[in-house]
Every structure is written in structure tokens, then in C-alpha cells.
Design a protein that fits this description.
Length: 261
């Protein structure tokens, strides 16, 4: 039997993104990928925006994603530890997935030692300077009172609102992520450089930007953005202290931004 020693990281799947047939195709690819890595995966980190829209009620969960959620449960039952970070699209994940799948849910960044290396892990939204309009929107989405009011809506109406919002997103319209802003202008890199003034980290691992990148700063520390599963199909894997950013399609790896600054 293969020893489970690899740690995988994946972000921004946006399952449920319009149009539905494209999302179904990506879900099947994802499930097959999870099946392929199942024998060797000790831990799996889902780094946010796994769903393009998700809102669960106390006794009602969204339709769909059966194959994906079932595969997660299978991995969990098979001994893989699964960690889920909420992103800006799936901020309303509550206790359904932790109970059904057996995963651990995080809503804020965490610091963790993996294979002897120090990691700063977060979805990556709202970090660093700027992006004030989004930060205001995030505060609205995470406001407990507003969440309570939204939960009072009938599920059919609430889901219609969510799917209409999803349908209008730039990714649903076929628009790819905005370009890489530069080594000293990417908010996540700016955030990491500031963080390193007070504490050392080997790796910062983020999602959110949809731009797969591996940038080495301060001689050794690396800032990883996991990209997405809309255009790049990228993921991270840690094995024996070696972190690599890869794609399901090797030809896409040419799109990974690799820098040393």
C-alpha cells in the first residue's frame, strides 16, 4: 500500500459557476484528480472559493456537487485529513460539510508547521493594502445580523439571488483574471513582506487571485498563489519538504508566474 505522505493544496474551483454544463465538466475532472491522489494524500487543503456560491440553512443545504462532496467524504473515511478555508464566494459554509465530510473549517488565516516548514495559510482575500471596496463588501457578507436576515429568505429565493450573482461574475462571462500586478504591487506579496518583518515563514499559500505564482522573497520565503480550476487547473503539492506548483495539464505550467526578488 502506498504511504500517505503528500500534502495537496487547491483553490478557486468555483463549482456551480455559470454555465452549469462547464461546471459539471470541471467537477468530474476534479473528482478524477481526487481519486488519482487518494492513495498518497495525507492532508488536503481546500483554500477557498471551492463553490461559486454557497449558502446553507440549518436544515437545508444547496443542491448539486454530489460527486465532489461524496469524494471528499471518501477521502476523509480513507484517512486523509481535509481542511477547508472559506473564501469570498463560499463565506456561508457553516456546519454541513464539517459534519458530513469530517473536514476542519477555517474562516481566518492560520499558521501551521507542515513537514518541518512554517506555513501561513489563507484564502488571501482582503489582505494587504488597497481593495477597499472589496473589504467593505466582505464586512457586509460576514456580518452576523445580515447573515441572519438572509437566512430568513425562502431557500428558492435566496438561491436564485446567489445564482444570478454568480451568472454576472466576470468568470462566468469568460473573462480571465486580471494580469499579474508586478512583484512589488501584488497585495498578497506586499502583505507577506510586511509579515516577515515580525516573524519568519517558509511559505505563504493563498488563492483568490486566480494567477498561479511562485515568488521567492527575502532570500528564502516563498509566496504561492494556487491559481484556479477555471483556466489553469493548478494545485500545490508538498512532499518531503519540497513544494511544487503544478497543473493538471502540464502545458499550462508555462502560465505560472515564477519570480525571485
Amino acid at each position: 500500500m502506498t504511504e500517505k505522505k503528500k500534502i495537496y493544496f487547491i483553490s478557486d474551483l468555483h463549482l456551480g459557476l455559470y454555465p452549469p454544463e462547464k461546471s459539471a465538466e470541471r467537477e468530474k475532472l476534479l473528482v478524477q484528480w481526487l481519486e488519482d491522489i487518494k492513495p498518497e494524500t495525507a492532508e488536503l487543503y481546500l483554500m477557498g472559493d471551492i463553490f461559486d456560491f454557497w449558502h446553507e440553512y440549518k436544515r437545508v443545504a444547496p443542491r448539486g456537487f454530489t460527486r465532489f462532496i461524496g469524494k471528499l467524504a471518501e477521502l476523509s473515511d480513507n484517512g486523509t485529513q481535509i481542511f477547508y478555508f472559506t473564501g469570498n464566494h463560499d463565506v456561508w459554509v457553516y456546519d454541513y460539510l464539517p459534519k458530513e465530510v469530517g473536514l476542519t473549517l477555517y474562516r481566518t488565516p492560520i499558521i501551521k508547521t507542515l513537514q518541518g516548514l512554517k506555513f501561513f495559510l489563507a484564502h488571501g482575500d482582503g489582505l494587504g493594502p488597497g481593495d477597499f471596496s472589496y473589504k467593505i463588501l466582505k464586512r457586509i457578507f460576514t456580518n452576523r445580523l445580515l447573515q441572519w436576515f438572509f437566512a430568513r429568505l425562502h431557500p428558492n429565493f435566496a438561491m436564485a439571488i446567489g445564482h444570478t450573482w454568480s451568472k454576472k461574475s466576470r468568470y462566468a462571462k469568460g473573462i480571465v483574471a486580471e494580469p499579474y500586478r508586478g512583484d512589488y504591487n501584488e497585495f498578497q506579496i506586499v502583505f507577506a513582506r510586511k509579515k516577515l518583518q515580525h516573524a519568519y515563514f517558509d511559505f505563504f499559500v493563498f488563492g483568490h487571485r486566480h494567477i498561479p505564482s511562485d515568488v521567492t522573497i527575502n532570500e528564502k520565503s516563498r509566496v504561492i498563489n494556487l491559481g484556479d480550476w477555471i483556466n489553469n487547473y493548478t494545485y500545490g503539492v508538498l512532499e518531503d519538504g519540497d513544494f511544487q506548483l503544478k497543473s493538471l495539464y502540464p502545458e499550462n505550467e508555462k502560465n505560472i508566474v515564477r519570480r525571485k526578488i
